[in-house]
Amino acid sequence: MNISLTGRGLELTDTIKDHMRSSIDALKKYNMDIISANAVASSQHKKGKEHFNVEFVLNLPQKHTIVISQNDGDLHAAIDIALERAEKALRRLHDKEVDHHKTGLNEIKSEDVDVKEVAAELEDEIVPVELDLYKPREVEDVLNDLKESGKMFDIFIDNEDKTRVLYKRNDGKFGLY
């Protein structure tokens, strides 16, 4: 990896250069084969205060160039924040390559898969259940059954051939729909 350190409007001291180099070296852990890394530190005076701008330009093979620019009143803080943002960008690219592996058509064709067996496995199995719903019942009988069973509701047909629901309310009483 080629590393280029540049200072615009300020002189880069050895400690700042070492800090920038170690920051860029920390980006190697993502195994993204960084071709070159350019770090540019500049100083600006606005309203009597000095502001620092740090810009990292990372060139990756077969990918876009990553450009991170960070402003701060402290040069070391600007370098650290720019490093965090560069790590985040590289982590996203790395995760996208590792987690989103696409299977090609040739790999799919090489697998022997019986489509009929897979379709049969995916079908939902329907088990018929006989309901006691069809014979008319009295509300009192359903109420007694509901109190004895621990169910929250019961669906039944009353003597007038209407489908009814008897349910237990939150206040302990019963409701009829």
UniProtKB/TrEMBL annotation:
GO terms for biological process: negative regulation of translational elongation. Keywords: Translation regulation. It comes from the Bacteria. The keyword tRNA processing does not apply. GO terms for cellular component: cytosolic small ribosomal subunit. NCBIfam families: yfiA. Associates exclusively with 100S ribosomes, which are dimers of 70S ribosomes. This is Ribosome hibernation promoting factor. It comes from Sulfurimonas marina.
